[in-house]
Structure formats: C-alpha cells, structure tokens
Specification:
This is VOC domain-containing protein. It comes from Streptomyces nojiriensis. Residues 5-116 form the VOC domain. InterPro entries: Glyas_Bleomycin-R_OHBP_Dase, Glyas_Fos-R_dOase_dom, VOC_core. The protein is an alpha+beta fold and 116 residues long. It has one domain (6-115): 2,3-Dihydroxybiphenyl 1,2-Dioxygenase, domain 1 (Roll), CATH 3.10.180. 26% of the residues lie in helices and 45% in strands. It contains 3 helices and 8 strands; from the N terminus they run E-H-E-E-E-H-E-H-E-E-E. It has helices at residues 18-29, 56-63, 74-83; strands at residues 6-14, 34-38, 41-46, 49-53, 67-71, 87-95, 98-104, 110-115. Strands 2-3-4-1-5-8-7-6 form an 8-stranded mixed beta sheet. Strand 3 and strand 4 (49-53) form a beta hairpin. It is globular and about 40 Å long. The relative contact order is 0.19.
C-alpha cells in the first residue's frame, strides 16, 4: 500500500490589511500574489503563504485551519486520514481552485486538504 503524499504545505496568515501585507510577501517569496475571494473573505496566495482578511465572522471560518495541504489524490488522502483517526469537519466540495475538505487530525490540528 502506498502512503498518501502531501505535495506542498501552504501557511495561512490572517492580516488586517491585505493590500498593505501583499508587497512584503511578494518581495519575500519573489512571486506575484494571486488574489481571490471565498466565503466573504479576501485572500492572496503568495508563494507558500495564504494571506486572508475580512470581517471577523467570515474570517473565523478560515482562521481555525492551521495550514493547507496540497495532495494529488484528494479522495485517497481523505480516506487515508480518516482511517488513521482524522475526523471530517467539512467533506470534499468544489471551490474556485479545485476541491477541498477540512479534517481534524487525531491530535487536534485542523487542516484543509486541497486537490483536483
């Protein structure tokens, strides 16, 4: 049996002013931010960072997730994590950038899994 592979990890960071924060992270990573909105939150993906800002109520839905884990087979990753004791907080669903699921690992961390 082949173990699930995590292709990359994206660090999530809440910021008060997205426009003010983005230039720092663009310079730090040498990449240009990709901006988008999701569930009432404005976001910017900059290298390995996902910056987000918005009203407290909307941001709380995003802020409770420690990191985003990119996987090549989302269904298999969710099944394997669940078999290992993870609890599905949000089942797989489509997003503007692919599909996502949110899981609570057996030791308490909450992670977003994303994939095709």
């Amino acid at each position: 049996m082949t173990a699930m592979a995590i292709d990359s990890v994206v660090v999530r960071q809440r910021v008060e002013d997205l426009d003010a924060a983005v230039p720092f992270y663009e310079k730090l990573t040498g990449t240009t931010a990709a901006r988008f909105a999701f569930a009432g939150v404005t976001l910017a993906s900059v290298g390995p960072f996902l910056l987000f800002a918005g009203p407290d109520e909307a941001v709380q839905r995003v802020a409770g997730v420690a990191a985003t884990l990119s996987v090549s087979d989302l269904n298999a990753a969710v099944e394997e994590a669940e078999a290992g004791g993870a609890v599905i907080v949000m089942p797989i669903q489509p997003t503007p950038n692919g599909h996502r699921a949110v899981l609570r690992h057996p030791h308490g961390g909450v992670y977003e899994y994303v994939g095709p």
